[in-house]
Structure formats: structure tokens, C-alpha cells
Amino acid sequence: MKINKAVHGEVMVITIEEKEANLSNSEQFKTQVIQEIAAGRHRLIISFIHVEYLDSSFLGALVAILKALLPYEGRLILSGMNGDIVNLFELTRLDKIFVLKENTDLALKEF
Amino acid sequence: MNKTILMVDDDIVQLELFKRLLTANGYTCKTALSVDAAESILNSEIPDLIISDYQMPVKDGFDFRRILLQHDLLKQIPFLFLTSVSDNSFIQQGLDLKAIDYISKGTPAKQILTKIDNLMQSVRTHYEKSLSEIKGIAEKLNLRNTPEAAPVLKRFSISFFNTHYQNHPGGDFIDFIQVNDRYTFIILGDVMGKKWGAWFFSFSFLSYIRSAVRLCVYDGDLSLSVILAKLNRVIYSDTLLSEIFSTLGIVLLDDETGAVKYAGAGDLPALKYDEAKEELKAYRSEGILLGFLPESTYNELDIRLEGNDELFMISDGMIDFEIDGVKRSDINIFKLKLYELKKNGRSANDIKDILFDKHTSQVDDCSIITIKPIRQ
Question: Among residues B139, B167, B202, which one ends one of the domains?
Fold first, then answer.
């Protein structure tokens, strides 16, 4: 999956560079992020600024990433999601387990 | 569908010639001048075919192939060697590394294209044959994650609709558990994911749900929040499901009193069409999806169904659409179409006929369960 990684101090910002986050790229994305976690990156922001649509496979990958951070007491913030995706998170109570921020700047202030 | 081919060659002229040939014939072509560059592309994209030169500086085509063979996902991509060497030992060495074939650099363009077209077609045919075999086995074993029919009750009429996405069974699962003459549990779950992977795991969830319901019933406890909490605990501790998550909605029908209870875990709201008020009301459960936390709490809601009221349980495929090429999730589109149907006195079962049309396509497997009270 096309992603862009930028490091801000202890925080890594992973920007998804694709319009669709779905079954075809969810497994690869999960592997890419889990590798970062294994390498010691435990403060992460995932930016969805370019993402128009996200399916349940990708939601599953995000939950798995969040669960992988739990043993390290790590932190994951999701930023830049469009209205449809935020609504989906709220409808399915995923907003209770993820921290959502409007943009990366606001997300960085959380750390 | 547009297929993507990754070309790897240290000769930029050769790469450009191939790129022109392939793109002019409907393929998307990614190019890499080295094995390292190819690996970088593979980190972000999985092509349908890889064509690689043998002889390259630093890492050659054989090194590249060996790297791919160590990777579970990448080793499955069909691989062709490209060579200007006619040495049979080179060719044999490549084929020994499970390359499907090789293309000689001197081969006329038309033959190269035919070879690639045939290979892609052969991969497709092989995939469809495997799919057909799995489907046949599943049918023979009567492996179903949706029942053949809904139970017939005195006070309630139940109907359901489930359709697969692109003809693949998916993660939606439905069950009706009649524990005695009085109580029936209605289950609608959705394993996060699509197609066969989600389908496979849906059986693990179904079996846990049946066990949790039965155990709670034996203990005399019909509380949906207790059932969900127990279920969550056991799913959380199952290492096989540690990275698999499912949403779940449960409705308990009391066929003696007509009472309806609902609880959910990360599911979409249950929707009730209130005939008297002519409105569609959403009942949102508070529980998060199963298996994320070791302990979660779940609330239980009472829903009163009277007259021609109807209660709907839906999976997320019902709110995922592709409208004129743009995909989106929007429960309001679904609610509006459902509301219009009910307001016009039509059956909610018609929703499946009007939800998707020439502008709006299905993008996931879809399920809806409808529960109506029967006048006594």
C-alpha cells in the first residue's frame, strides 16, 4: 500500500496515499505498521486525508494495529477522516476505542 | 480489470520499450531499475505479474526471486524471467526457482503479449477452478453461515435476506436459536473482512455464540448483556481469533409475551419502523466489537413492537454503496429508501430490489433481518 512516513520527535505520522482503504491493501498495511511497532514506534498517527472510502477489512486491520500497541502502552490517533468514515466509526462505536482528530496538527498536540 | 505488471531491468531502454508495449495493450506497468527499487514498489503495491531480468548488478534476478520466495504473499505473484542469455543452464536455474516461464529479449512484441495474455488467463482460470472446488466442498459439507429458513413463531414473523459480494461467501452470518417454545434468539454478525477469509472465521464466531447462548440458558440467565460479556471474554482469549474481530447484534423474542430485547457489539443500530408515528427509529447499543478488550460491558434495550411496526437488523453491506463510481458508507441513504418503502405501504423485503440499481452498486455482502409482530 502506498504510504508516506514522517517522524515528528517520538511520533510517526503514516499518511495513506490511496483513495480506497480496502481488502486489497489492508493486510499489507497492517504488516507495514506492525513492522514499525516492532521496530519501536509506539506513538502513531495514521492520516486518512486522501482516503475517500474505507471498508470493513481495513477497519479490522486498524483494530488489529491498535490491539498490537496495547502491550507497549502505545498510542494511535487517526486523523483527517471524511464525514462518511467518521459517521461509520460513531455508528459502530469504534469512536470509543480510537481517538479521532480532524487533522494531523491537532493529532500531534495530543502527544 | 486492469492488470498491473512490475518490470525489473537495469536497462532503461528495455524497460521503456516494455512499458510502452504493455500500457498500449491495456496493462498498467510499474518499472524498477534494480532489485532494491522493485522491493520498494512491492512494499506499497502487489502487482499481478512480475517480469525480471536475470543479469543485473548488485542483486541479480535469481537473488530477487529467492527474496520473493521467502515472503508468503510475494511468492504467490506469477513470475517470468526476461533474458538475453540463451544459455540453457541459466534458463533451468530460473525455472528451478519456481518461475513460471521465461521471455527472451529478442522475442517479437506480438509473441511477448500473447505469452503474457495467456499466462494471465491461465492464472484466472486456475483461480476460478480452485474457487469452484472450494464452493463445491462447502456445499457438500452443508457449511452455511446463514440458515435456510427463519423459524415460525406465534407472535412474530421473521424474514431475512442475505446476498454475497461478487459471488463469494463473506463474513456476514445469521442464526436463529430457538431455546424452547418461548424464547428465540436472532443473531446477525459480521466478521470484519471480506470473501473467504471472513467466511472461514464466521464459523468460529457462530459456534461460540451458540455455546454462550446455550450455557446462559442452562444457567437460567437470558440477559443479552451477560451473554455478550461472556462471549467477548472467550473470544478475546482465543489466540486463533486475536486479530479477527466481529460485530454482533442479538435480539431475544419472547413468544409468550411479545417482548423484544436487543443488544449489540459494534453493530449498526437496529431500526424500527413505527407505524403510528410514521417514523424510523434507531436503537443504538453501546457495546464495542467482540474480542478487542478482555472485559467489555454491553447494554440491553427493550423494543416495543405493535401493529404493523417492523424491526430491522442490518449488516454494513447495506449501507456501503458505489454511486456512479464513488464508494461511500452512508446509513442515511439506506434509511431514506427504507422509510420511503414503508411510507408507501410496500414490504420492507422490497428493499433488496431498490437499494442497488444501475447507478448504485453493492460493494460488500449484505444482510437484513426483518421482525414483525403478528396480531393476536
Answer: B139
